[in-house]
Amino acid sequence: MNENISKRNRLLAEKVIKGLESRNMSGYYAETKEEALNMALEMIPEGSTVGMGGAMSAHEIGLVDELKKGNYNFIDRDAEEDKRAAMLKTYDADIFLSSVNAMTEDGVLINIDGNSNRVSAIAQGPKKVIFIVGMNKVCSDVDGAMKRARNVAAPINAQRFGLSTPCAKTGACMDCKSPDNICCQFLMTRFSRHEGRIHLILVNDSLGF
Q1: What sign has the CA pseudo-torsion 81, 79, 68, 119?
Q2: Which terminal CB of the chain, N or C, has fewer other CB atoms within 10 Å?
Q3: Where does the chain have alpha helices with state H?
Q4: Could you write out the DSSP letters of every residue in 122-175?
Q5: What is the residue extent of each domain of the chain?
Q6: Which of 179, 158, 153, 161 is nearest to 169 (CA)?
Q7: Where are the alpha helices (H) located in 70-110, listed in sequence order?
C-alpha cells in the first residue's frame, strides 16, 4: 500500500483505538493481513470453540482457513446440514468472529443483519468477540457510518447473495420492505459493559464490503 495512505491509516487507527478504549473495548492495529492473522490467532487459544457471522474480512486475512485446519472447534455454518442448530451453538462459543459494516473514528460500531444471528451474537452470548476491520470501514461519525452500512455494504451483500432487493438493482438503499430485505436489524455498539469481551483488529488494507 502507498506509504502516504499507510501513514494516514496509522494516525487514524490511533484515534480509533483510543475511542474503543473509552468504550471499554480493545483495539489493535496491523500493518498487513499477515500481521492481523497472527494477532487474531494469538487471541484464540487452541481447543476454543469458534463461531462466526458472515465476515468476509476474516476469510481475506486467512483466519478461517487456519481455524479449519488447526486445533479448534470451528462451527462451520456453511458445512452444517442444520444451519439453525449451528447458529444456536455459536451463542455459547468461546470466540465469535465478525467484522463491521462500518464504524466511527471514535469507536462506535455499526452492523446490519437479515437473519440477525450475527448482530445478536455480537450483542450477547459468545465469551469473546473479535472483529477484523479494514481501514476502509472507518467513517467520520455515526451518520456517515450508517450511510456506509446501508449504501455500500448492504447493496454489495444483496448482490453477492443473489437477492431481489431494490438496492441490489440500483446500488443504493431504497429503505425497502422487500421479502429479501437484509437490513432487518441495526446494531449500534457504543459501549461494552463486559471488560475484555470485545476486541477489534484494524488492518491497513481494504477488506470486506
Answers
A1: negative
A2: N
A3: 3-22, 33-43, 56-60, 63-69, 83-90, 117-123, 142-148, 154-160, 166-170
A4: HHSSSSEEEEEEEGGGEESSHHHHHHHIIIIIHHHHHHHTT---HHHHHSS---
A5: 3-203
A6: 158
A7: 83-90
Q: 74: burial class by Cβ within 10 Å (0-12, 13-18, 19+)?
A: buried
Q: Which of 167, 146, 34 is nearest to 101 (CA)?
A: 146
Place of cell 455480537: 122
Chain segment 106-163, per-residue pLDDT in tens: 999 999 999 999 999 999 999 999 999 999 999 999 999 999 999 999 999 999 999 9
> Nearest 5 degrees, angle CA 141-CA 146-CA 147?
100
Residue 97, strand partner residues: 52, 130
CATH topology (fold) of 3-203: Rossmann fold (3.40.50)
